[in-house]
Amino acid sequence: MTRLLLDWRNGREAALSELTPIIYDELHRLAGAYMRRQRPDHPLQPTALVNEAYLRLLGHEAPALQNRVHFMATAAQIMRQVLVDFARKKQAAKRDFGHRVTLDDAIPGRRDSQENLIALNDSLERLAKIDPRRAKAIELRYFGGLSLEETAEAIGSTVATVRRDVALGQAWLRGELSRKATAE
């Protein structure tokens, strides 16, 4: 995958034909992980998430993807944004902002409601402004499905630092979501 990404980035258009099935499989695996955290009756299906992410990821020109880890990090961010955009549209249609969010509802790995996903995304964006590395580590581990080693490679850090960043980032998110829930 890394060789094909580099070939495509360097202008070999045929590399995209070889890369497409690989990208699609990786996106589908990632979408499945995302959708397992959603409620069972979520209207967005994994294939629709894959298609939207594929369109956003590849767009009209070759993105500057360096390797598989960088691809997965970028894809995770795009898929999270697709789900958040979808949730915001649904929420805007309902105009129901009275839902309280607790960390247990919004932490990665739980079935997320639209409101929880938006609250978690907003909190993760606030964390990114304060501590971008911790936010990126959480995004890659829980939304990108990367291992500790892959996450460390993607952000140019050590496994021990990633482990610490994820733990401290989760604690910060718990506090942030708890404060938000009590303020509502």
Parts with pLDDT < 50 across at least 5 consecutive residues: 95-112
- How many domains make up the 3D coordinates? 1
Largest sheet: none
* Oligomeric state, counting identical vs distinct chains: single chain
Strand content: under 5%
Distance between the termini: 46 Å
Q: Determine the fraction of residues in helical runs and give it as a percent range.
A: over 70%
What does this structure look like?
This protein is mainly α and 184 residues long. It has one domain. It has 9 helices and no strands. Helix 1 crosses helix 2 and helix 4 packs across helix 6. The protein is globular. About 10% of the residues have low confidence.
Topology:
Layout (H helix, E strand, L loop, with lengths): L1 H8 L4 H23 L9 H13 L9 H27 L8 H4 L7 H17 L1 H12 L4 H8 L3 H25 L1
Task: Describe the structure in brief.
The chain has 184 residues and is mostly helical. The protein is 74% helix and 0% strand.
